[in-house]
Amino acid sequence: MILTEAPVVTAALEAAVRAPSPHNTQPWLFEVGSDVIGVVLDEDRVLEVCDPDRREARLSCGAALLNLELAIAVAGRSCDVEFLPEKDRPELLARVGIGPRHRASAAEQRLAASIRVRYSNRRPFASTPVPAGARHAVRRAAGDEGAKLVLLDEVGLLEAVAGLIRRADHLQTLDDRFQAELRAWTRESGGNDGVPAYAGGPRPSGGLLPVRHHGESEQAREFERDPVVAVLTTPTDGPLAQIRAGRAMQRALLTATSLGLSASFYSQPMEIPSARAVLRSLLGENAHPQAVFRLGYGFPGSTTPRRPVGDVLRIMR
């Protein structure tokens, strides 16, 4: 690879692939030239049943973009981001130019250090309350990226949204195409994508909300009865808003990780258009929900595998 900043690029790509994605599909490619990295949506890894409009894939690529920027910053360089730079290539979501020397802030260093240890914790959380300071920090992190993070217990919507999540989960349980897609991305062992059995979590029994079961064990476990559930919203929708929402989601998740919190997603209402519309009406017509996840203090788990950088890399001559 002939690049003027090859060590920076390598660090950036190794961080980018650690972003979260639905079913750990990793729907991204990276086009690398001289001091420039393009973030591309990989159409071959889009979930056609639960993400036909590519919204969740764009969120994932937005999260990868933030990881990439943070890694460049702590490697000592600035960067310039251009969103949707080519009108005739909508799959090219962003182009990152590596700029002059940069001294990483303490916040950038803290978030970058959380990239490798962040993971979706699908197991029950402890009953320890999430303190007000941590709640404020996670909300502010989303706000720094132009999004809003609504903690449902603080606005009196937890019960209503919990019912919506349960109904959406039930619909997906009955959907043979969805279940086949879920099974296709659940790994018993090996592989560098999908959700491996060890990270799938137990089958939920009791608790307020169902956590998606990926098949680690058929033994049922009770989940928390009073979860902290967050909904990330944006003032508009569409490809650009979804890319930005992915950045906001990842900044919130990395902030939570740096504070010792765990998180995992309630994607069910985001993947059924009618349920997402109901959620929007509950939150207000000016709020477009983009992601729903729970926060809490989780017991230790493991990160899920990622494809090697070489598998997601395109060299631009």
UniProtKB/TrEMBL annotation:
<protein>
    <submittedName>
        <fullName>Uncharacterized protein</fullName>
    </submittedName>
</protein>
<dbReference type="InterPro" id="IPR050627">
    <property type="entry name" value="Nitroreductase/BluB"/>
</dbReference>
<dbReference type="InterPro" id="IPR000415">
    <property type="entry name" value="Nitroreductase-like"/>
</dbReference>
<dbReference type="GO" id="GO:0016491">
    <property type="term" value="F:oxidoreductase activity"/>
</dbReference>
